[in-house]
Amino acid sequence: MAHDMLAETLRDRMPRLFAAGVDHNDMQALLQRMAGIGDWPRAWEHLAADREAMGEAALAEGRSVSAGAAFQAAALHYHFAQFVHFADIADKQRLQRRQAAAYLRAAPHLRPPAQRILVPFEGIRIPGNLRRPSGIPGAAPCVLLNPGADSTKEEFHTLENEFLARGMATFSYDGPGQGLTWTEMKLRPDYEAPISALIDRLQVEEGIDPNRFGIWGRSFGAYCALRGATDPRLRACVSIGGFYDMGAVWHRMPRGTTESLGHAFGTSPENWPAEARRYTLQGVLGAVRCPVLIVHSGQDNVCPVGESQRMIDALGPEAELRVFAEGNHVCDNIAYRVRPLMADWLAERLGVG
Question: Which among 233, 242, 197, 189 is positioned nearest to 214, based on CA atoms?
Fold first, then answer.
C-alpha cells in the first residue's frame, strides 16, 4: 500500500516538482531513498538540509548569489517535504517553519531580492513575498500569486521569474488555510476578503503602481483569484486549472487533493463533502469587471474542463478560455508553453511595454 501511494503521488506530482525547479538528478537521488510514501518527508528534508549547508558555506565565503540559490532551493525542498505529510501535523508545521526560515535566508540574495511583508487581516497577519523587477523606471505593476490548497508561496520562485522578466512585480502569499497561516485561520470561501486586504497594503508600497494590479491563481488558487477579481482595483485575472463548484467535483478529485483540502478546512473527514459545497462561484462572477483568461487542460484529473466553461458562461465576453489537450492539472507538464502565455497576457493588460 505504501509503495502504491508513493507511485500515485509521483504520477500526479512529478511534472509539478520539475516545473517548480526541482533538479532531475535530485529527483533520482530522492527515489533511491524512498521505499514508500512514509519515507517522503525525511528524504526531502535530507535534501533541503544539504542545500542549507551549501548556503551557509557560500555565505561564509562571501558568495551571496550562490547562497541565495541554495537557500531558495532548501525552502522549495522543505515545502515538498511537508506537502503530502498529514500523518503528523506537528511535524508538518516544523517542516513549514524550516521552509519559511530558509526562504528568509535566501530573500536578500535573490535576483531580484524578495521582501517579506506581513498584511494585517481580521486579527492575523498574512505573510507574503514581494519581488520587484530590476531596471524598470517608475512604479511597476504587481501580480498577486495565489497558491492552491497544498501550495505555499515558496513554491513560486520559477513562476515569479516569468512575470519579473516582463517588468511586473510579484506578491506570493499564504492566505487563510495555507502554509503556516493555517495555524491562525483555516480555509474560507470568501477569499475576496483577504485579497482586498492585500491590495490595501500593497497600494502604499514604494515602487508599486497602485493602479495596475493583476491576479493569478492555480487550482484552488484559481478559485481565489476569481473571487478576488470582484475587487474593482484589479485590472486583469488569470485562472488555471480551477473549479467553479468544489462540491460538484469533490467525488472525482484524487485522494491527495481531498486530503490537502480537508486539512485546509480544519474539520474531520466526515464533514469534508459538506464543507466543499460552500466553495462555489455561483452568483459571484457577475461582479467581475476586468478581463479574465481561463486556462485549462484536457488531462486534468482534479477539475474537468467543464468547470472552466461554466466560468466563461458566467463571465461573458470579457473572458477567454484556452484549453491545452495535452496538459495535466494546471499544465505543469507543459509549463514552458503555458507560463509565457499567461505572463504575456497579463503584461499586455497591465500596460507593460
Answer: 233
Can you give the pTM of this predicted structure? 0.95
**pLDDT reported for residue 1:** 44
Share of the chain above pLDDT 90, in %: 87
Residues 148 and 166 sit within 8 Å (Cβ to Cβ): no
pLDDT-derived band at 60 (thresholds 50, 70, 90) equals: very high
- Structure confidence by residue, pLDDT tens digits, 229-276: 999 999 999 999 999 999 999 999 998 899 999 999 999 999 999 999
Mean pLDDT lowest among 1-5, 20-24, 71-75, 100-104: 1-5
By DSSP bridging, strand 124-131 and strand 114-121 are antiparallel
Q: Indicate the residue type of 40.
A: W
Q: Are 277 and 249 in contact (CB under 8 A)?
A: no
Alpha helices in the chain (DSSP H): 2-20, 24-33, 40-60, 64-82, 89-106, 157-164, 192-202, 220-228, 246-249, 255-265, 272-276, 305-315, 335-349
193 Cβ neighbours under 8 A, 6+ residues apart: 121, 122
Residue 258 φ/ψ, nearest 5 degrees: -70, -35
Question: Could you tell me the three cell numbers for 91?
Answer: 511535524
C-alpha distance across the termini of the chain, in Å: 53
Domains of the chain: 1-111 (1.20.1440.110), 112-353 (3.40.50.1820)
The cell numbers describing 263, all together, are 486539512
The residue among 146, 158, 114 whose CA lies nearest residue 16 is 158
Q: How many residues are present in the chain? A: 353
Sheet of strand 124-131, all strands in order from the earlier edge strand to the far edge: 114-121, 124-131, 169-173, 140-146, 208-218, 234-240, 292-297, 319-324
Q: Which residues are catalytic?
A: 219
- Distances 191 to 25, 229, 284, 330 between C-alpha atoms, Å: 38, 10, 12, 20
Pull the grid cell for residue 144.
498577486
* pLDDT bucket at 38, cuts 50 / 70 / 90: confident
The pLDDT of residue 107 is 98
List the grid coordinates of 287.
461582479
Residue 152 has pLDDT above 80, yes or no: yes
